[in-house]
Design brief:
The structure is a single chain. By secondary structure, this protein is of the alpha/beta class. It has two domains: 3-165, no CATH class; 170-433, Purple Acid Phosphatase, chain A, domain 2. Helix content is 44%, strand content 17%. The chain has helices at 3-41, 47-79, 84-121, 132-165, 206-218, 242-245, 272-289, 327-331, 347-354; strands at 172-180, 191-195, 223-227, 254-257, 291-293, 297-303, 306-312, 340-343, 364-367, 377-379, 382-384, 396-400, 403-407, 425-433. The strands form three sheets. It has a six-stranded mixed β-sheet with strand order 1-14-2-3-4-5. Strands 6-7-8-9-13-12 form a six-stranded mixed β-sheet. A two-stranded antiparallel sheet has the order 10-11. β8, α9 (347-354) and β9 form a beta-alpha-beta unit. The longest helix is centred in the N-terminal third of the chain and has 39 residues, at 3-41. It is elongated. The termini are far apart.
């Protein structure tokens, strides 16, 4: 083993150790705070009952810590944080800690109230030892708060369990209509289906996935688009799904682009050649599926004597995401005034290079990537999700300067092996002439 490779491995190990220590420290603090509420809830229970509950509480927590260590050290590097052990660990963490966070919010509100009261009262009287009645009042209120927190925490717990078992396959069809003054007449009324973020390596129910493919085909769209992340990391994840996704059909064809996970950047490879071979195999998989893969290129699509230009950009994302996309290359040979549809996986690319681009007017961009965080609430036009902390545009239709962006919520899942409130999506877009 070369000296440089050994140093690189040591640095990687140090980063993993640091990240694990930080994660486990946060988990421990959450558990300790949760424990204080648990003690308050069980204050009137028998000593034997308290011991049983407390020992079970900490035994479960330590088992979770061991699972995190095992997965991070021995499993995740092999599979790019997308293998079976990682999915199992993610499920355990979400079920364990999301309800605890909701629970401790109630305890925190109580503690903040007591702190404010202490600060407000302290300047006006000497701090004395609390009388027995005051202590009893606090203990009673603490127990009430803890019990209320338990009831509230049961809601996300139930949601997480549903999301992991059923929600990840609760496919929804979202339909939108967009009107353009300069849409070529031959394309008036064209219907397009968009799929994104299949993440085939995460699926575990062939019948459910077949239902999604059938549902997409049942829309009877003229043309179909897939906007990246066919796999989590490795092309062989598609081995068991070729016969399923190969059934996606549309009269005018199925067109695709690449997402950040398709390049294998999040997995370890024995060599750069092995990584490239994996990518080349993925290109061939698109072809076998009947997808026309566009890699920083464009093509004309004809209908009823008119044409539009379809652009396919390789992945380009802000922050630490890969930037394989080249918009100038993608636009080479296009007509300045033509109607253009762009497939670009990451919506931040639209914000960075398309939205305010005065030189090139790209009428519609189709993206995915965000998954809507796979967790949130959607009621009518109200959309709430942690995704909005990272993305200004994370689900649905957006418009700026006469240019439209549609962000698909994704068909699959990764990380958290489920979906709660933000369901897997099949998009149907109809274009109209004004």
């Amino acid at each position: 083993m070369g000296k440089q490779k050994l140093i690189a491995m040591m640095l990687t190990a140090a980063k993993i150790y640091k990240a694990l220590f930080s994660i486990l420290l946060v988990f421990t603090l959450i558990d300790l705070y949760t424990y204080t509420g648990l003690r308050a809830s069980l204050r009137s229970s028998s000593s034997r009952m308290r011991k049983i509950v407390f020992r079970a509480f900490w035994a479960i927590n330590f088992a979770v810590y061991i699972l995190v260590l095992y997965t991070a050290w021995l499993q995740s590097p092999k599979y790019g944080f997308a293998g079976g052990w990682f999915k199992f660990m993610a499920a355990v963490l979400f079920i364990s800690y999301i309800p605890k966070i909701f629970y401790i919010i109630f305890l925190l509100i109580e503690d903040i109230y007591r702190l404010i009261r202490f600060i407000a009262v302290a300047p006006y009287k000497l701090i004395k030892k609390e009388e027995a009645s005051s202590v009893e009042l606090f203990q009673s209120r603490r127990k009430f708060i803890a019990n209320t927190g338990t009831i509230v925490a049961a809601i996300p717990f139930t949601g997480m369990v549903y999301g992991i078992t059923k929600g990840k396959y609760n496919f929804k069809v979202h339909k939108v209509e967009i009107t353009y003054k300069d849409l070529p007449k031959g394309f008036d009324g064209i219907q397009m289906t968009q799929l994104s973020d299949i993440h085939s390596g995460s699926f575990d129910n062939k019948e459910a996935v077949q239902h999604a493919v059938d549902l997409a085909n049942e829309q009877k769209s003229d043309i179909m688009f897939f906007t990246g992340d066919l796999v989590n990391n490795r092309s062989d994840e598609m081995a068991n799904w070729m016969d399923v996704f190969g059934k996606l059909k549309a009269p005018m064809g199925v067109y695709s682009s690449l997402g950040n996970h398709d390049y294998g950047d999040y997995a370890e490879w024995p060599s750069a050649e092995a990584k490239q071979a994996n990518l080349e195999k993925l290109f061939d998989i698109h072809k076998q599926l009947g997808f026309k893969l566009l890699r920083n290129e464009n093509m004309k699509i004809e209908r009823n004597g008119s044409h539009i230009e379809l652009l396919g950009l390789e992945n380009w994302g802000k922050g630490g995401f890969s930037k394989y996309g080249d918009l100038n290359k993608t636009l080479q040979g296009t007509e300045p005034d033509s109607f253009k549809i762009l497939m670009s996986h990451d919506p931040t690319h639209w914000e960075a290079q398309v939205m305010n681009n005065a030189e090139h007017h790209i009428h519609l961009t189709l993206a995915g990537h965000t998954h809507g965080a796979q967790f949130g609430v959607e009621i009518g036009d109200v959309k709430i999700s942690p995704a909005r902390l990272s993305y200004d545009r994370w689900a649905g239709l957006y418009e700026e300067n006469g240019k439209y962006l549609y962000v698909n919520r994704g068909l699959g899942f990764i990380g958290f092996p489920g979906r709660v409130g933000i369901w897997p999506e099949i998009t149907v877009i109809t274009l109209r002439s004004a």
